Amino acid sequence: MYTYERFLFIQPSQLPGAGKGLFTKVFIPQKAFVIEHKGRVTTWDAVKHDIDNAYLFYVNRHHILDAKPYTKALGRYANDASGTAQVPGLENNCRYVVASGKVYIKAIRDIPAGSEILVYYGPGYWEQEKKNRSV
């Protein structure tokens, strides 16, 4: 499957407090697969107590992607514009798609060159983040 991985780069995110962000050097058309979201495949039982790990992607309880140890996996740097650090005018331009056991970030609108790749994490992610911060 074709992705735009070779045209992506990391730089500080436009979202305050988000750290690094994922950006594109080229125009990415709507519906294109931007990048495969990679990580170690594990189970929910193995990671459910790792509350400080913001790099977990839940496919099902037997298939969790843990991107935390994979600093070269670019997909882990895609931030969520609808999270706690929102910026007026910045909206998510991607969503996660699971296909054939793999997780991809897919464009939901045209993405101009130089733009940050912003993907919706889902309500469960932000609910867990709130719980983790209150611990």
User: Mind summarizing the main beta sheet?
Assistant: 3 strands, antiparallel
- CATH topology, by name, is Beta-clip-like
Derived structural class? alpha+beta
Order of helices and strands: EEEEHEEEEH
Unreliably modeled segments: none
How many structurally independent domains? 1
* Widest sheet, order of strands: 3-8-7
- Give the full name of the CATH homologous superfamily: SET domain
Structure description:
- The chain starts with 7 loop residues before the first strand and ends with a helix.
- It contains two helices and eight strands.
- It has helices spanning 44-47, 123-134, and strands at 8-12, 20-24, 33-37, 40-42, 56-60, 63-66, 94-99, 102-107.
- It has one domain (5-134): Beta Complex (Beta-clip-like).
- It has 135 residues and is an alpha+beta fold.
- The longest helix has 12 residues, at 123-134.
Feature tags:
135 residues, three-stranded antiparallel β-sheet, 8 strands, Beta-clip-like, globular, alpha+beta, 2 helices
Q: What can be said about this structure in brief?
A:
With 135 residues, the chain is α+β, with helices and mostly antiparallel strands.
Describe the secondary-structure layout.
Elements: E1 8-12, E2 20-24, E3 33-37, E4 40-42, H1 44-47, E5 56-60, E6 63-66, E7 94-99, E8 102-107, H2 123-134
Antiparallel strand pairs: 1-2, 3-8, 4-6, 5-6, 7-8
